[in-house]
Design brief:
six-stranded antiparallel beta sheet, alpha+beta, Phosphorylase Kinase, domain 1, elongated, 11 helices, Transferase(Phosphotransferase), domain 1
C-alpha cells in the first residue's frame, strides 16, 4: 500500500499494524498536510460481519466524544476499488510509542510512575463512563496505551487508543466476547460488559508493569491474581491493586472515580487527624448483606452467615467422618468374623478342654460388638450435630452491639434475635486502636477485626464470615463511632 492514495485524499506513508481483517497505516492528509492514522477493515477472506458492526460502533463513539487523551475522529468512508475494498476510519495521529513498545525496549517503571499512569487512565475512564450511555473500552492493555514527553519524574502524556472493542453500557442483545486474555475481567468471558470491567483491565496492566510478568502467567488463587510476592510496593498500593482486579465485580471499586479517590487518598493513615477530614468516606460495598444500624447510644452490626458455604463445609466434614467410620467398621467386622469363624470351626477339643481359650475369645467378640455399636452411635451423633450446625449457619447471623463503653456479641437464628449474648469484656476507654487482621480457621484464613488493648489483640465477632472489602468498610464505621485513629493491622 506504500505511496498509494486511500479515499482520494490520504497518502500512505507506512504500515503501523496488521492483524486478520485489519490494517492500520500512517498517512498524510493531502488537503491539510497533517499526519493521520487510517484504520482499514479490509473486505477479504478474513472479513466477518461482526467486525463491521464493531468497526462502525468505534466510528460512532469516537465521533461523539472529545478528549485530549483520546484520538479524535476525522473521517469514515467506504473504499471500493479493485486493489482495495473495505471501510476506513480516519483519526488524529499521536506521535508516541505504546506502553508495550516501552516494555519491549527494556524500560522499567517506578511505583510513582505506575501511580501516575493509573491516575491518567482513570481520568480518561471517568470521562468515558460518565457518557450517556457509558462508554466501555473493553480492551485496556499495554499495546493500547501510548506514552510521550517523559521528563524527570513525570511519566509524560498518556493516551488511550484502539476503541475497536468499545461497547455501550445500555447495549442489549447477544454480547460478543471481546478482549485480551490476561486483561479480561471474569464477567467479560461470559459476554457481560460493565464499566468495572475496564477497572479490572487497568489493574492487570499495572500489575504487569510492577511485577514484570504477563497477568496470565501469574499464579492465581480462587480466581485472584497473586502478585504481592513479586513486587516491592506499599501495602496501601498493593491492596488498591487487589481491589482493582477483584474477580467478584461487586467487590471492585464502585467506579473509576472511587478508584481514583482511593488511589490519591488511601484509607490507611497513621495520622489521627485524618479522621477530621469527612470527605473521605468508604461506602458500603455493593451486594453486601451486612446490616449496620446506628441508634442514639449504640451501633449494631448484623453479619449474616455465608450459609451455603458453611453448610458445604459441614457436609464435607461429615462425609470424611462417614468414610473413616466405614473403614473402621469394616476392620472391626472382619476381625469379628475371623474370630467367630475360628471359634465355630476350631477344634472341639480345645474349646471343651480349655476354659482359657473359650472365654477370652467370646469376651473379645463381645468387646468388638460393643465397639461397633459405640461407633455407630458416635456416627449418628456426628450426623445430627453437623446437620444442626449447618442449619444454624444457613439461617443464622452474628449480631455485634457496640456501645460507648462495651462490646457485646450474640447470635440470631430465624426469628430469634440476640440468642446467647457474649460480653467481650472490652471497654472503650481501654481500646487503643482497631485493626484489620487475618484469622486462621480450619486451615483457611479469613479477614476479621481485632481490638488492640495494651498490645493484646481481641478478635471481634471471630465467627463472622465477611470479605476484605466489607472489613474495610466496617473498620471505618467502627473507628468513626469509637473515635479511634486509622491504623492498619
Amino acid at each position: 500500500m506504500n505511496k498509494k492514495i486511500i479515499g482520494d485524499r490520504y497518502q500512505v506513508i507506512y504500515l503501523l499494524g496488521k492483524k486478520p481483517g485489519y490494517r492500520t497505516v500512517l498517512c498524510s492528509d493531502t488537503q491539510t498536510q497533517q499526519l493521520v492514522v487510517v484504520k482499514l477493515l479490509v473486505w477479504n477472506e478474513d472479513f466477518e460481519w461482526q467486525n463491521l458492526k464493531l468497526f462502525e460502533r468505534e466510528a460512532r463513539v469516537l465521533q461523539s466524544i472529545s478528549h485530549r487523551s483520546i484520538p479524535r475522529y476525522l473521517d469514515y468512508f467506504e473504499v471500493n476499488k479493485p486493489q482495495l475494498k473495505g471501510f476506513c476510519l480516519v483519526q488524529t495521529y499521536i506521535n508516541a510509542a505504546s506502553l508495550e513498545k516501552h516494555l519491549q525496549a527494556g524500560r522499567t517503571f517506578s511505583i510513582e510512575e505506575v501511580k501516575q499512569l493509573a491516575e491518567s487512565i482513570l481520568k480518561i475512564l471517568i470521562y468515558l463512563h460518565s457518557q450517556q450511555p457509558a462508554i466501555i473500552h473493553r480492551d485496556i492493555k499495554p499495546s493500547n496505551i501510548l506514552l510521550t514527553n517523559r521528563s524527570g519524574n513525570s511519566i509524560g502524556n498518556v493516551y488511550l487508543v484502539d476503541f475497536g472493542s468499545v461497547n455501550l453500557a445500555a447495549s442489549s442483545g447477544t454480547m460478543t466476547v471481546v478482549g485480551t486474555y490476561g486483561y479480561m475481567s471474569p464477567e467479560q468471558f461470559g459476554g457481560k460488559v460493565i464499566p468495572k470491567s475496564d477497572l479490572y483491565s487497568l489493574g492487570a496492566t499495572l500489575i504487569y508493569l510492577i511485577a514484570g510478568m504477563h497477568p496470565a502467567n501469574l499464579p492465581q488463587k480462587d480466581g485472584k491474581i497473586q502478585f504481592e510476592q513479586l513486587v516491592n510496593c506499599s501495602d496501601d498500593f498493593a491492596n488498591w491493586l487487589k481491589r482493582m482486579v477483584e474477580p467478584v465485580e461487586e467487590l471492585r471499586f464502585a467506579s473509576a472515580k472511587a478508584a481514583l479517590q482511593s488511589l490519591k487518598h488511601p484509607l490507611i493513615k497513621t495520622n489521627a487527624n485524618y479522621l477530621t477530614n469527612k470527605k473521605f468516606v468508604i461506602e458500603k460495598p455493593f451486594g453486601s448483606k451486612v446490616k449496620l444500624k446506628k441508634h442514639k447510644n449504640i451501633l449494631e452490626i448484623i453479619i449474616p452467615s455465608r450459609g451455603n458455604s458453611k453448610l458445604k463445609e459441614n457436609l464435607v466434614f461429615l462425609g470424611r467422618n462417614m468414610f473413616n467410620f466405614a473403614i473402621k467398621m469394616f476392620l472391626l467386622i472382619l476381625t469379628y468374623v475371623l474370630i467367630l469363624s475360628a471359634i465355630l470351626n476350631g477344634s472341639a477339643y480345645y474349646i471343651s478342654t480349655s476354659i482359657f481359650i473359650y472365654f477370652p475369645l467370646y469376651a473379645l467378640v463381645f468387646i468388638l460388638c460393643a465397639g461397633i455399636y459405640v461407633m455407630y452411635i458416635a456416627l449418628i451423633v456426628s450426623i445430627i450435630k453437623n446437620l444442626v450446625k449447618g442449619l444454624i449457619n444457613l439461617f443464622g447471623a452474628e449480631r455485634l452491639q457496640i456501645e460507648p463503653n462495651r462490646i457485646t456479641s450474640s447470635s440470631d437464628w430465624l426469628c430469634f434475635k440476640g440468642c446467647f449474648p457474649r460480653s467481650m469484656h472490652l471497654f472503650r476507654r481501654n481500646i487503643d486502636r482497631l485493626e484489620k487482621v487475618l484469622i486462621a480457621e480450619n486451615n483457611n484464613s479469613k479477614w476479621g477485626i481485632a481490638a488492640n488493648v495494651g498490645g493484646i489483640k481481641y478478635k471481634i465477632a471471630p465467627k463472622s464470615d465477611v470479605t476484605e472489602v466489607e472489613i474495610d468498610w466496617l473498620c471505618n464505621e467502627l473507628r468513626e463511632y469509637l473515635n479511634l485513629p486509622l491504623e492498619d493491622g
